[in-house]
Each structure stands twice: as C-alpha cells, then as structure tokens.
Amino acid sequence: MKKDFNQWLSQFKESIANYGYYIDFETVYKNISDIKVELNIMNSLVGSPSIEEDFKELVKKYPSVLKCIPILLAKREMSIFCMDQDGTFNYNFNKQNYSIDEYVIFMKKTGLFELIQKRLISNLYDYVLGVEAGLNSNGRKNRGGHLMEDLVESYIIKAGFIKDKTYFKEMYLSELEDKTGLNLSTLSNSGSTAKRFDFVILSNKCVYACECNFYASGGSKLNETARSYKTLALESKNIPGFKFVWFTDGLGWISARNNLKETFDVLDDIYCIRELEENLLKKF
Predict the structure, then answer these.
(1) Which of 76, 177, 212, 280 could form a disulfide linkage to 275, CB 3.0–4.6 angstroms apart?
(2) How far does CA 15 lie from the centroid of its chain?
(3) What is the pLDDT of residue 90?
(4) What radius of gyration, in Å, describes the C-alpha atoms of the chain?
(5) Domain architecture of the chain: domains with CATH
(6) Cα separations (Å) of 107 from 6, 24, 62, 88, 114?
(7) What is the pLDDT of residues 241-269, one digit of tens each?
C-alpha cells in the first residue's frame, strides 16, 4: 500500500548531528601542533613596549616564526594579498619575499601588533586554539553531508550486507554495469553521463542503487535534487532487476514539500530515517 506523504513527512528529523559534528578537535590539535614552537617563540612579544624592534630581531633570529602569522588572522593560506594607498603587496609567510620592515608594516596595519602589545590576548597558543576551533566549525556543512551517508551505511551493515562484497560505496554507473551486467544506458544518456551512486546493494532480489542526503534547512538545492531524482526514478522504472532508492530526511524539506511530493509520487523506494530504524533494509 502506498505511504501517505504527509504522515511520512511528519516523521522527518530536525538533526542527525553526532558528537563529532560540531568541532573536529583532533584536526584542531594537529594544526596547532604544526606551529606550536613558532607560537611559543612569538609569545615573547606579548606586552612588549618596543614590539616593532623586538619583532625584527625575532624574525632575524627565527625566520620560521613568519609561518604562524596567517593563522593569527584566521587564514590558512601562506600567501596574503593586501593593498592600500601605499601600494599592492602579496606577502609570503612560508618563504620571506619582502624586507622585515615591510612585514612590520603588515603586522601594524592588520592590527596584530596592537593585539599582542596591549595584552588583549595573554597567550598566542590559546588564541590560535580558538581561531582553529572557529575555522573548523565552518566544516560542519561538509561533515553534515557525510553524516547521512554514515548513518545509512550503519543500517546497511546492520542488515547483514558486507562492504565490497554485497554492498559498495560510491560506485559509478559504468562500474555497476560491469559488476552486474545490467544495461543502464537509459540512466547514463547512452554513456554520456558519469553518474555515481552513494551506495549499491546487491541482494538475491535486486540491485539497489541508492542516494542519500539530509537537509536541515531549505534552499534551491532541495528542489534541484528532487527534480533530478524524479527523472532518475522514471528512467529506472522499466529496468529488470534494478531499483533506484532514495534515503532522505530533514526539516529542510518542509519548505520544499511540493517538489519532494512530485518525486514521492513516482518513486516507490523513497525512505526516511524512521524507516531505516524499523529495519527496512532487512527486506532488501
């Protein structure tokens, strides 16, 4: 019996964030470890009454301290472009390309000397720890994209499928054809499209090609995804031994419910997390 769309949509979750979603502290600590020595050397400038001269002597004696400067401005790149009425500059902090006096100008005009000299921070290591945590939080979108894949994979494994034997991750259409002998030319526009599925599950019943995503918020991307998967659902309906499966969830779909319903109406194998929790994959 066909599912009721509204009842199905009402089961969607607000979030699937796990404990490691917010900050990847392992990466934060590694990034700081790479410049820990240089940061501790630079700490000698904190509160210095003659910071410009002290900085010059520091760079002369320990030129490698330059490489820890970009992160003080929340920049990972070792090259920083600046321009004003005095000219255009592209400072290299990996390999010194200007005089030390010009790096002094950089430190002064960016406000870093003021930050360090006036003891607005007491320790550069702790300061960079905060900067790194902030930068790492920007990676949540990418981590969020993998959360749904990881969640779906955990249920695939729980259902008894074995990686690289009875299920495969990130498999291209051409690989799937080679593996199964299926003719999927209707999905690839006669070989002109390099389609890749998040998962492919091989069972005694069928070959399941799966896509999965989670949308916590709305946007044009959801409408594009729904339209794309509607086309895929229609193109795959008459391929013997093959089914296209879409695992999706998230309250972002509330604002794009009409587009989602269009795909829901033509795709029998569209599921949410609640259905995975109810051992849906045991039926595959």
Answers:
(1) 280
(2) 16
(3) 96
(4) 27
(5) 5-19+139-283 (3.40.91), 34-137 (no CATH)
(6) 58, 30, 16, 15, 9
(7) 999 999 999 999 999 999 999 999 999 99
- Report residue 13 as tokens: 């979750």
Q: Residue holding tokens 């031994």?
A: 241
Nearest one of 140, 135, 138, 143 to 77, comparing CA atoms: 135
Q: How far apart are CA 78 and CA 69, in angstroms?
A: 9
* Residue-wise DSSP of the chain: -PPPHHHHHTT--S----TTSS--HHHHHHHHHTTHHHHHHHGGGTT-TTHHHHHHHHHHH-GGGGGGHHHHTT---SEEEEEETTEEEEEESSS--S-HHHHHHHHHHTTHHHHHHTTSSS-HHHHHHHHHHHHHHTTHHHHHHHHHHHHHHHHHHHTT--BTTTEEEEEEHHHHHHHH----TTTTTTTT---EEEEEEE-SS-EEEEEEEE-SS--HHHHHHHHHHHHHHHHHTT-TTEEEEEEEE-GGGGTTHHHHHHHHHH-S-EE-HHHHHTTGGGG-
**Which pLDDT score is estimated for 217?**
87
Report which residue type is found at 262. Answer: E
User: Whole-model pTM?
Assistant: 0.74
**Distance separating alpha carbons of residues 270 and 268, to the nearest angstrom:** 6
User: How far lies 114's CA from each of 46, 117, 213, in Å?
Assistant: 10, 5, 46
